[in-house]
Amino acid sequence: MNHLTLTYRFDAGDDDGWLGVEVKSENFSGRGGFWVQWQEVEEFGQSLRAYPITSDAPIVREWGYEQCEGDALVIGIKVAAANLTGELNVSVEVANNHETAERVRTSFLTHYPQLEAFSAGIASLMARASKEAVLLGI
């Protein structure tokens, strides 16, 4: 089953916490994580409420080192329109945060109701009311 799962472990000392990412598509799977400010995860979840999402203006969130270019990108998530029937393409890139040349890139399709549930799941995750947020694919 295609899915993207996010977890978040808050750090008591500051605004950064460990964002865990697991992705599974028909042919590839991977997992990893990176230190991310909780506010950025919260903002990403809210951005997923946009409608409609177009291929010209996808929702993109990237975390990593420096400018997140090339091997400096550790986590990348992109949601864009896949076709005219309302399906959405979810592209995910996850690298090993220590050996960033080791990475997985994959994608899967989903629909708006699943994206809305994922957005709500992220809000619940960031409110510490759940342990994970899951985006189901089709």
Summarize this, please?
With 138 residues, this protein is α+β, with helices and mostly antiparallel strands. It has helices spanning 38-47, 112-126, and strands at residues 3-10, 16-24, 29-37, 59-64, 73-81, 88-95, 103-110, 133-136.
Task: Describe what this molecule looks like in 3D.
The chain has 138 residues and is an alpha+beta fold. α1 (38-47) runs antiparallel to α2. Helices cover 18% and strands 44% of the residues. The longest helix has 15 residues, at 112-126. The strands form 2 sheets. Strands 3-2-1-8 form a 4-stranded antiparallel β-sheet. The termini are close together. It is built from 2 helices and 8 strands. The mean pLDDT is 95. The chain has helices at residues 38-47, 112-126, and strands at residues 3-10, 16-24, 29-37, 59-64, 73-81, 88-95, 103-110, 133-136. It has one domain (3-136): Secreted effector protein pipB2 fold (2-Layer Sandwich).
Average pLDDT for all residues: 95
Largest sheet: 4 strands, antiparallel
The structural domain count equals 1
Radius of gyration: 14 Å
Q: Per DSSP, what share of the residues sits in E-state strands of 2 or more residues? A: 35-45%
**Low-confidence parts:** none
CATH-derived architecture: 2-Layer Sandwich
Please name the CATH topology: Secreted effector protein pipB2 fold
Spatial strand sequence of the major β-sheet: 3-2-1-8
Number of helices: 2
Termini Cα gap:
8 Å
Order of helices and strands: EEEHEEEEHE
For the secondary structure, the number of strands is 8
